[in-house]
Structures are given as C-alpha cells and as structure tokens.
Amino acid sequence: MVKIDKFERPIISLRISITNRCNVKCFYCHHDGIIPQKYEMTPEEIMRISQVAKNIGIIKIRLSGGEPLIRKDIIDIVNSISKIGFTDVSITTNGILLEEYAQPLKDAGLDRINVSFDTLNPETYRFITKSDYVNQVKRGIEKAVEVGLYPVKVNMVVMRGLNHEEIWDMFHFCKETGAVLQLIELLKTENCPDEDFFDDYYYDMSIIEKKLLEKADNVKTRRFMQDRKKYYLEGGEIEVVKPMDNTEFCKNCTRLRITPEGKLKPCLLRNDNLVDLMEPIRRGVSDEYLESLFVEAITNREPYYAGC
Ligand code: SAM
Q1: Residue 308 has what pLDDT?
Q2: How many A from CA of 258 to the centre of ligand 1?
Q3: Is 136 strand, coil or helix?
Q4: Domain 3-299: which CATH class?
Q5: Domain boundaries, the chain
Q6: What does the pLDDT look like over 114-137, one tens digit per residue?
Q7: Is the beta carbon of 184 within 6 A of some atom in ligand 1?
Q8: Cα–Cα dist 297/266, whole Å
Q9: Is residue 170 classed exposed, middle or buried when 0-12, 13-18 and 19+ CB atoms within 10 A define those classes?
Q10: What is the C-alpha to C-alpha distance for residues 264 and 292, in angstroms, rounded to an integer?
C-alpha cells in the first residue's frame, strides 16, 4: 500500500546510492547531495532495504552513486533487487563501463538506464570529467540500446559556454542511437564546488524550452515526474528536467533516497533529517521495525522549498 506524506505526495520511488566512489571527477558534481563516507552497504543489506521499501509501497528503484558500475558486485545487486518485483529497476551511470555491463545488467533484470553524458566533444569532455572516455561512453549507450534496455536516456547537464551549443548534435546522436535526450539544468547545492562555478556556467533552460516549443509536434507534461516536459520533434524526443530548487519540484517529489552507508534521506537538498537503517539492521531488528523507520522518514518529510 503506497504511503502518502502529509503534503499529499505519494512515496513511490527509492534512489539507492550504492557507492561514493567514482571513476571520473566532474567539476560540477553535487554527489547526489550526499556527504562522502567510507562505508558501503553489502548486497544483502541493499536487498533487505529494497524488500522493506517494497513492503511500504515503493514501486520503482534506481541505483546511483558515485558510479554504481564500479562495484564488482553490481550484477548480483541488480539480480537480487529485480527478483523482488518492482515495476521498474534502473541505474544512473556515467556509461564508462556500460559497453561491458549492458548485457549482464539486462540479463540480471535491469529495465532501463540513464547515462550521464554532457558532450560529444573530446576536449569539452576532458574539461568536465578530467578524462578521455567519450568514445567508450558512446559505445556504452549504443550497446545499452542494442541489448534492449528501454528506455536508454542520456542525461546532459547544460552549461553556458561549455556545451549549450551542442544540444542539437546530442539530440541527433541520441535519435540515431535510439536513446532519449534529457536536458538537465545545472543545480547549485552545498556539495558543489566554489561559488563562481554556478554564475559562470548556469544556463537558463527556458531559452531552450522556448525553441523546443516552436519546433515540437507534440508536448507532454509528466505529473509526479516533477511536471517534466517531454517534447516530440523530428521523430525523436527531448525531456527537460526542471530545476530542483523550487516549490514545483518539491510539490511533485515522490522519492526517498538511501545514502551509501544506509541512511534514509527524505530530501536531496537536506542532510539534517536522515534516518539510520544500518545500526538497527545489524542489531537484528524485524522487517516491521524497518518499515516503521521508513514511515517515520515519510511522516517527517517537509518540502525543502515550502509553498506546496
Ligand atoms: N555516476 C553516476 C552518473 O554519472 O550518472 C551517478 C551519479 S551522478 C551524481 C547523477 C546525476 O547527477 C548525473 O546525471 C549528473 O549529471 C547529475 N548532476 C551532478 N551534479 C549536478 C549539478 N550540479 N547540477 C545538475 N545535475 C548534476
């Protein structure tokens, strides 16, 4: 039975960060709002938490990080979670290891995948990530489509002067590959780098949305997906992920998060209301007790940006 918080938001999705470690260093990364810790949950602990989440009405699980594909046990983790019976099991990855992992992930029961890929230009990629994996990521995206992960979404954080002029190239790459482009507005959080980075690179997505509206054959708004707009054009699709630091985002937020060390995190933008699950799990508590901790986190859920 789906739980509804006191702001009438159904809690249906869980994003589990399974590691803090990453194989690239994107200069803008907000690390999913998580303060880095050394500890990582075991596959058994991740599976237990997922099962309890299912019991309290969660229907969608997304694995994230850090970079989830650098965990050697990623296939076991996906295998055990997908057996629980969620409507949707997905991963967000930077795609560097995807060519190798796409088929095993599909075989393990993964439904779909989001690949963070901001540029096709090797120099810009190097500037953003301090690495040279453009072709590897492209092959990873192609492979994910080929093995039948669906949909394969490409997450492009749009940054002024860095990649904002590449949107159409990226759109055509995605269309030709069979992937869907998601444009993401740069977000400023307390985990982000220095003060200037946001002023230097922030790009107002309403400029793109205006162009998309002119070109689109059809536009759909996705309720409970933060009212995201999906534009259909030239036989392809582009989704625009609205900024997260506003009341609309909070109003439609249906997600809980789990940090790599096993704390329930009710809000991307806050770290002062986490609920620890690992200490009770190690103490040997029952599933019912863990469910009550989920309910506690849901009950105390407050929109970060009030007004919803
Ligand atoms: N390593 C995985 C990946 O690259 O997808 C998962 C973690 S990464 C933190 C998750 C997503 O957050 C990526 O799509 C990334 O582009 C996005 N992201 C990170 N920092 C951001 C920021 N400051 N503004 C907007 N999106 C950001």
Answers
A1: 45
A2: 16
A3: helix
A4: alpha beta
A5: 3-299
A6: 999 999 999 999 999 999 999 999
A7: yes
A8: 6
A9: buried
A10: 12
Distance of CA 265 from the midpoint of ligand 1 (Å): 17
Q: Which atom of ligand 1 lies at the shortest distance from residue 192's CA?
A: 23
Strand partners, 239: 182, 230
| Backbone torsions φ then ψ of 57, nearest 5 degrees | 105, 5
pTM of the model: 0.94
Decide whether any atom of ligand 1 lies within 6 Å of the 67 Cβ: yes
Phi, psi at 307, each rounded to 5°: 110, 0
90 ligand 1 Cβ < 6 A: no
Q: Please tell me what DSSP assigns to residue 32.
A: G
Residue entry with tokens 């940054």? 159
Alpha carbons 185 and 146: distance in angstroms, whole number: 29
- For residue 280, give every residue at least 6 positions away whose Cβ sits within 8 Å of its Cβ, in sequence order, or none: 289, 290, 293
Pocket flag, ligand 1, residue 56 (CB < 6 Å): no
Average model confidence (pLDDT) across the chain: 91
Q: Which amino acid is at 125?
A: Y
- Give the span between the Cα atoms of 203 and 187, in whole angstroms: 10
